[in-house]
Amino acid sequence: MSFPGVLDIDWNVMAPAVSLLITAIVALVFGLSARDSRGPAAVALIGVLTAGIFAVAHLFSGNESAASFGLRYLGDVPATALTLVILLGTAMAILVSWDQLERGGMGQPEYYPLMLLSALGAVVMASAGDLITLILGLEIMSLPAYALSAWRTRDRQSEEAGMKYFLLGAFGSAMLIYGTALLYGASGSFVYGAVAAALQGGNLTLLATAGGALVLAGLGFKAALAPFHQWAPDVYTGAPTVVVTFMSVVIKVGAFAALLRIAATVFPALQPWLLTALAVIVALTLVVGNFTALMQRGLKRMLAYSSVAHAGYLGLALLAANHGGVAAAAFYLSVYALMNAGAFAVLTLVTDASDHGDDLERFAGLGRTRPGLAAAMAVFMLSLGGIPLLGGFTGKVLVFQATIDAGHVWLAVLGIATSVVALFYYFRVIAYMYFRESSHAPHTFRSTPARVAIAVALVGTVLLGILPGWWHTLLSVGPRFLAGY
Amino acid sequence: MYLEVLMMFLAAGLIAAAALVVGGLLGPKKPGEVKLSAYESGVPAVGSARERFPVHFYLVAMVFIIFDLETAFFYPLAVKFQAAPQFLFANAVIFVAILAVGYVYLLRKGVLNWK
Q1: What residues of chain B lie within 8 A of the CB of A3, using their CB?
Q2: DSSP state letters, A385-454
Q3: CA–CA dist A258, A439 (Å, integer)
Q4: ipTM for the whole predicted complex goes beyond 0.85
Q5: Residue A231 half-sphere exposure, CB side, CA atoms within 13 Å?
Q6: B104 interface with A at CB cutoff 8 Å
Q7: For a FRET experiment, which of A338, A397, A466, B51 has its CA 20 to 30 Å from that of B108?
């Protein structure tokens, strides 16, 4: 007996994931004997950079039809580009955690290995060419994230966050797995392209549509799309801010990478009402995320709802997956990773060691006491709000353009309208930093690695705003998914 | 096609429900202290079942899971080994190496030290 095509392993495609796995193991062994958590942090950072070099090398090799395990693990442009975004988010999270772990008494040696494994799972999700690989990636990504969100032991809020995330995440995983089973039952295959091809004929549509709906709901949980977003604010508030820096970027990229691929291949073959349902979900996400963020006082909670809102904008790209939406979403995710991780990085420096004190009041007068930090935060807020000349604006324009091209004009209009609402809560942070005197001097934390992360995010956000062309062109070179046709 | 299965589920549910309802309505009830106490293999019950166990047991269970996984992986591997000997051997080596790291980790955590 032979394994048809399964043994074909292209190590260029696998290299980023393999480097992450090896680094996680090395960091764990090294962490057991290390004095504090900074040594393992360095190991983790080196591993992520190595993986990044492999990913860049593969991206520029032009070999976009490379795949491993018989189209089950892909190395096309979206997969490699999103892998890079995941690695970028992980590197920023490592830099932000560098000093914060010791400061908050969270320096257990398992932290970085778990983070690297979670990033590995996200990379696998971004590269998955079939539903089984997707489920494996999702679980590899989620399980460490559950543990990480409860990282602050003996803190009730952090424990609650971990428990909540675990229960709801398990629920989401179960729906995804059930949906996968139904899709397999309807099409006889796990590979996206083969599923789509089998369903094109229109047989067993009820079974397939139920499967597609369950897959959408399961991944919607991870991506925090509107009716499935309930866990996000509580987890973001309770989990340590350094972990949220990681989660808000990497988990979102992983979930959307998988959703994009499925939306581009499987969904068009299913009942059209599924896409209508997705449109309703996206509209709901935009409204709920933006309007609830408006009412928050705590910055972590505000950023949590803002990340729900951004899931809505990314959801617009899902609906336009075959009209340039893939490149638009990949671009948006790149900018989102930079500006969101940057904002959380600033937040870790402003809040207490226990992560408490994220109220807006804490930011009053920051423009005078820490001008650099305040300026960086202002740029991130403006970019998140979508102000021109910053990356967030370019991302939004690309997404709206793709949405209109796909014929969802009313959704694009809703997106633009909610962007205006979003400006209010982002500007409020800036107003507090510059136009309000604080009653007490805010004591902030200083950390050089975190400053490096903020600088990288700042440069990236501005660069993608002023010169978006090169990255978007690169992403558009291979907009077609290699899906196993 | 699946109607028979559904009917079987219904019949099973009905019989179970009927047994409970009829038993509850007709059965004699003479409760006593001995009858109401929890059954622990015939020995008088000692304390509550909701005891706290040392977290150490949990880690020992993890050691068990590590070796259990190894067995669970090696059985199918042995059966299909001839299909691709080099590939599967490399697979097995990598798998054992990863498990070994887990074992070393547990040892360093002091799982086998009973003070």
Answers
A1: 83-84
A2: HT-TTSHHHHHHHHHHHHHHHTT-HHHHHHHHHHHHHHHHHHHHHHHHHHH---SSPPP----HHHHHHH
A3: 47
A4: no
A5: 27
A6: yes
A7: B51
Element (H, E) at A68: strand A67-68
Chain A CB within 8 Å of residue B2 CB: no
* Two tokens, residue B69: 């996984």
Length of chain B: 115
| pLDDT per residue as tens digits for the range A424-480 | 999 999 998 898 887 666 677 888 999 999 999 999 999 999 888 888 888 876 545
pTM (two decimals): 0.88
Residue in A3, A25, A32 nearest the CB of B83: A3
> Tokens 């604080």 appear where?
A438
Cα–Cα distances in angstroms (integers) from residue A384 to residues A13, A392, A394, in the given order: 32, 6, 11
For residue B73, the one-letter residue type is F
Chain A residue with minimal CA distance to B104?
Answer: A29
Q: Using the beta-carbon criterion (under 8 Å), do A32 and B105 form an inter-chain contact?
A: yes
A125: how many CB neighbours lie within 10 A of its CB?
33
Start-to-end CA distance of chain A, whole Å, equals: 25
Chain B hits for A7, CB-CB cut-off 8 Å, are 84, 87
